Amino acid sequence: MSQSAIDLPSRLLLNLKPWRNATAWHIAFSGGLDSTVLLHLLAHLAKTESLPPLTAIHVHHGLQAVADAWPDHCRSVCDALGVPLQVVRVQVQPGASLERAARDARYGAFMDVTQANQVLLTAQHRDDQAETLLFRLLRGAGVRGLSGMPRRRPLGGGHLVRPLLDITRTELETYASENHLNWIEDPSNQDRQFSRNYLRHQVFPALTARWPQAMATMARSAAHLSEAQGLLDDLAQIDLSQASTPSDFDWLGLPSLELAALEKLSVARQRNALSHWLEPRTRLPESDHWSGWDSLRDAAVDARPIWRLADGELHRAGGRLWWLSGGWLSPVLAAGEWPDPALPRALPGNGVLTLTGQIPDGPLQIRYREGGEIMELPPRGHRDLKRLLNERGVPQFVRGRLPLLFKGEQLLAVPNLQGLEGGAAGSWNLHWQPPNEDQGLS
């Protein structure tokens, strides 16, 4: 057996040392060369090392007829190694990029099976990292994209870990040959219409013929860029800490930032901080489409600018930026009567209302703003609701969602707003719990 094949188990164990206390290791098992080697290595290490319980996960995309035989192959390999196998069938959504759609479906399945304190192990290696760097470079990626695939990242309730990123494809092939492993050859891997396959079969052979260490040096560049991205993330945290000030409307439960704190930064630092803040919430725009941020930031004080992104919208109101997504972007549905005000009133797509204290006589109704509403405020008399909301600085995007309590045509209360939310002398109080993530927000 070659020296590299002998070293492989010890190198793998070293890379997985931080994860030895996980409650389970799931292995993403396509049946191809890379994942077959990873599975074989771990199954044999488990005989002599104290490892978390191993299971294999095979995702069946249903994109090729030949793939129907792959679950049986994977099952036979797992049976021989004594590793339980879970086969997950997914629906790949049609779209412009079949590669991306299949990946999204696959990682959605991985997310579902990875519970708290569990790890999903995937078999990407150093050559894959170099391909990723060049592929993203050709697409104009920034530092984050050129960092390549991270060695670890959160996934589901646990983590995704790539323990082979310092191993070459040649080393995996040598191990597979010396251990007489059998694996699936996916015909689509030869289809050079796919960009990654074109790079693998056309571009990299030419590069390595001229520069034999091209794969290693490109993977090293990805590591340098990953370190640079870490420094940018640290800077973003510092800048965001200055902008993450309290708001009178924190009860909305919406992410928000103070605009003035961001405006003090250079344009590059603004984009860095915002990218860091938005990244867990939405797919980020390409660099050419950041003009939406400029328009939002520079709009007149009395304007109501909106920056529409892939998975939500950034609004500006009250000197702050607000992130809205999911149910916040859907129109509210009529609420109607409140038959028993002693019980909480669920509002369709708009949270929950509760009345506490000496509940006013009914019948009571929940309505939303239509314009022209008047509210009686002793001793101020009758006041226009729009003016009252202006006085309290209520963001425009909230006003149409505020549930209003009526008795007949009399507006009794507006929830959560001081002086408007209840009866005289505090005899009763109307409280609104806006919709949260569990009620359809991203």
From TrEMBL:
<feature type="domain" description="Lysidine-tRNA(Ile) synthetase C-terminal">
    <location>
        <begin position="364"/>
        <end position="432"/>
    </location>
</feature>
<comment type="similarity">
    <text>Belongs to the tRNA(Ile)-lysidine synthase family.</text>
</comment>
<dbReference type="GO" id="GO:0005737">
    <property type="term" value="C:cytoplasm"/>
</dbReference>
<dbReference type="Pfam" id="PF01171">
    <property type="entry name" value="ATP_bind_3"/>
</dbReference>
<dbReference type="Pfam" id="PF09179">
    <property type="entry name" value="TilS"/>
</dbReference>
<dbReference type="InterPro" id="IPR012094">
    <property type="entry name" value="tRNA_Ile_lys_synt"/>
</dbReference>
<dbReference type="GO" id="GO:0032267">
    <property type="term" value="F:tRNA(Ile)-lysidine synthase activity"/>
</dbReference>
<dbReference type="InterPro" id="IPR015262">
    <property type="entry name" value="tRNA_Ile_lys_synt_subst-bd"/>
</dbReference>
<keyword id="KW-0547">Nucleotide-binding</keyword>
<dbReference type="InterPro" id="IPR012795">
    <property type="entry name" value="tRNA_Ile_lys_synt_N"/>
</dbReference>
<keyword id="KW-0067">ATP-binding</keyword>
<dbReference type="InterPro" id="IPR012796">
    <property type="entry name" value="Lysidine-tRNA-synth_C"/>
</dbReference>
<keyword id="KW-0819">tRNA processing</keyword>
<dbReference type="InterPro" id="IPR014729">
    <property type="entry name" value="Rossmann-like_a/b/a_fold"/>
</dbReference>
<dbReference type="InterPro" id="IPR011063">
    <property type="entry name" value="TilS/TtcA_N"/>
</dbReference>
<dbReference type="GO" id="GO:0005524">
    <property type="term" value="F:ATP binding"/>
</dbReference>
<comment type="function">
    <text>Ligates lysine onto the cytidine present at position 34 of the AUA codon-specific tRNA(Ile) that contains the anticodon CAU, in an ATP-dependent manner. Cytidine is converted to lysidine, thus changing the amino acid specificity of the tRNA from methionine to isoleucine.</text>
</comment>
<protein>
    <recommendedName>
        <fullName>tRNA(Ile)-lysidine synthase</fullName>
        <ecNumber>6.3.4.19</ecNumber>
    </recommendedName>
</protein>
<keyword id="KW-0436">Ligase</keyword>
<dbReference type="GO" id="GO:0006400">
    <property type="term" value="P:tRNA modification"/>
</dbReference>
<feature type="binding site">
    <location>
        <begin position="30"/>
        <end position="35"/>
    </location>
    <ligand>
        <name>ATP</name>
    </ligand>
</feature>
<keyword id="KW-0963">Cytoplasm</keyword>
<dbReference type="Pfam" id="PF11734">
    <property type="entry name" value="TilS_C"/>
</dbReference>
